[in-house]
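anyone seen this seq b4? input:
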Amino acid sequence: MFDSMKEKLATIVGADNVKDDAGILESYAKDQSFATGIRPWFVVKPQNAQQVQDLVKWANETSTPLVPVSSGGPHHKGDTIPSVPQSVIVDLSGMNRILNINRQQRMTVVEPGVTYGELQEALAKEGMTLSMPLAPRATKSVMTSVLEVEPRLNANHQWQYHDPLRCMEVVWGDGNSMFTGEAAGGVKDLEKQWDAQKWQVSGNGPNMFDFLRIPTQAQGTMGIVTWASLKCEVLPTIHNMHFVPAKKLENLIDFVYRVIRLRFSDELMVMNGSYLAELLGESAEQIQQLKAELPQWVALVGVLGRELLPEDRVEQQTSDIEEIAQQHGLKMVPALPKIKGDKVLAKALNPSKELYWKETAKGAYQDIFFVTTLDKTPMFLKAMYELAEDEGYNTSDIGVYIQPQHCGSSYHLEFHLPYDPNNALETAKVKRMFEKGSELMSGLGAFYARPYGMWAKLQLNKDAQSYNALKKLKKIFDPNDVMNTGKLTV
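predicted toks r here
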């Protein structure tokens, strides 16, 4: 059976793209999370959408679970390792073409293997950029990032929750393939659509249903996306980063609410000193030094100007935000001790170096993140600090990151827990912190919008109707349960 399966896979993707070496399989059997790993049978690397569709059809015929992976390692959330035996990893990193860049429409179309570094370099040549999450790792797939709806830095311009994602081609779990959004209204050929001046701009539809909602935040449990169109932005001609320091998180809440409501600033985020130190530090020693020098809390405010009157826009917005800060008993400054705005911009708006910045402090980490409202963040913070004290974890090591989403309608709250993976006691302590903290946050009202691992049960058990609806959707789009089997608890 094993040999015949390998031969069949070779006929689909080519013999060179089927891997069963023990070392390769082992690398896909585990990640940096605490999830239990299971070794896959094979790793296959399709090169085009037709091969992906043939793989999914074969999986349905043989009842073989498929685990799609687009980003390079290291992985940290447990979503890219098999949950059941005899799975096949579908590594999409070889599908790494930037299919189209349209400056006039501010659109690009990419395959799943394209990383942020590759795309931003290509877009910059056309005078554009794509909104990103905070300093993503160098191997992060752009498509994975947008499908998982990672928080973007341009919250004031995120008019839809799924921005910048628009259209896509998806191979559903039953083996059928379709274009979504505006792309579904024409011939199923991108080149012909571009010849007809159709640029996959609108993500709505087809008809009255927005199919792009099905694969998003689904961890590959509904299907495999083979290309996606993304809305880009014009590169700024002026870009400044300012800081609003504070002694307590509570001091920044009304200020952030006011700035968001007036649609001022371009980037707006809140961090504690520990998180900012890890973002900027080049070594463990430098991180410790920065933690001692940086303020306890800081709001980072980015203001930029593009093509039209950039100097006037930056000057006026900066003045207005300074006034808002003063009204709330705060002061906006262009620099912090030994830290200037351009250094933070360079770190925040570019992919991380080969060593992911979150691993610099101690070598490993776990994050607990969820969606909430800004006014509730002090409650979650207090509970997390109390848990850390109970577990003997140094509260000064906990990084906290708060990022507005969707024009400030919700907020991404992240607790960052670095630890030494070579220290068994510290590793066990952080594992307890992660498990207890996840349950504690859920009980306090945290919404796990990206429910990885144990978060799926915590979130879905709160709402029986949503859980039943999700199971029905799974049965429609993946009737034989071959797509990332076991994830999302369905």
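The domain at 238-443 is CATH 3.40.462.10 (Vanillyl-alcohol Oxidase; Chain A, domain 3). The chain has 15 helices and 19 strands. kinda curious what u guys think
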